[in-house]
Amino acid sequence: MPEGDTVWRLAQRLHDALTGGPLTRCDLRVPQLATVDLTGRGVLDVLPRGKHLLTRFEGGLTLHSHLRMDGAWKIYAPAERWRGGPAHQIRAILGTADHTAVGYRLPVLDLLRTADESRVVGHLGPDLLGPDWDPAEALRRLLATPERPLGEALLDQRNLAGIGNVYKSELCFLLGASPWLPLSALPRPERVPTLAKKLLEANKRRPARITTPSARPDRRLWVYGRAGRPCLRCGTEVRTADQDPTAEERVTYWCPTCQPDPPDGHRAG
């Protein structure tokens, strides 16, 4: 699933491609929007909100989309061949005289009044890359459930918006904390929102994430994607386990030496 930095970059690209002129083509291929035609309206802005995208149009309308695991927006020049997948996977087409944005496999696509955007993103916590970023509020939300494991709390978009599995694993490593450590046992919890903000800001303009001092492709991340390989800090084999057995695609990577088990003896995996 794309994380906040990836969605931020995508929003910038969509904004640059679609603003400045009216839509010359609009095709929304989901049942509830099949009769909607936004042709002639201008795109005012494309905004990221955590992992959500809000495309605002003239006339007070917003197209809300979320990529989840497999969705993608691709941008093409007028004569360019579309390469994002077969035609039956296309869920949205927004075209201007200069560019066409094609949404593939979008699991979430809603049209609503711009004034009602809070209906789809109002539950989110402070956005790590947004103008509403508030580290004190993010910390308050995290500590509201002190018994909750750190990794689960980081993934909860109601606490702070924009973190997924990659940053969850990397943040826990940089904090020297097990992903299963209760928030109440975490030393200096105020470091969490500060470090999360620092990591996403540093990577929002990079095509490849880097959380280590190295730019080598095999050493850009401390633990994520390194299952069975040596920890870059101590050499211990990096392990994996499900952060939450009830959730899909939430595998956690951690070093059992640099991130020791919680004091209650709970051991993951």
UniProtKB/TrEMBL annotation:
Keyword DNA-binding appears in the UniProt entry: yes
Record's catalysed reaction(s): 2'-deoxyribonucleotide-(2'-deoxyribose 5'-phosphate)-2'-deoxyribonucleotide-DNA = a 3'-end 2'-deoxyribonucleotide-(2,3-dehydro-2,3-deoxyribose 5'-phosphate)-DNA + a 5'-end 5'-phospho-2'-deoxyribonucleoside-DNA + H(+)
GO biological-process terms attached to the record: base-excision repair
Chain ranges of the FPG-type domain: 222-260
PROSITE patterns to which the protein is assigned, alphabetical: FPG_CAT, ZF_FPG_1, ZF_FPG_2
EC top class, as a word: lyase
Segment forming the signal sequence: none
Sequence ranges assigned to domain Formamidopyrimidine-DNA glycosylase catalytic in this UniProt record: 2-103
Origin superkingdom: Bacteria
Record bears the keyword Zinc: yes
Keywords noted in UniProt: DNA damage, DNA repair, DNA-binding, Endonuclease, Glycosidase, Hydrolase, Lyase, Metal-binding, Multifunctional enzyme, Nuclease, Zinc, Zinc-finger
UniProt EC number: 4.2.99.18
GO MF terms, alphabetically ordered: class I DNA-(apurinic or apyrimidinic site) endonuclease activity; damaged DNA binding; oxidized pyrimidine nucleobase lesion DNA N-glycosylase activity; zinc ion binding
Family membership noted in the UniProt record: Belongs to the FPG family.
The name this protein goes by in its record: DNA-(apurinic or apyrimidinic site) lyase
Organism: Streptomyces nigrescens
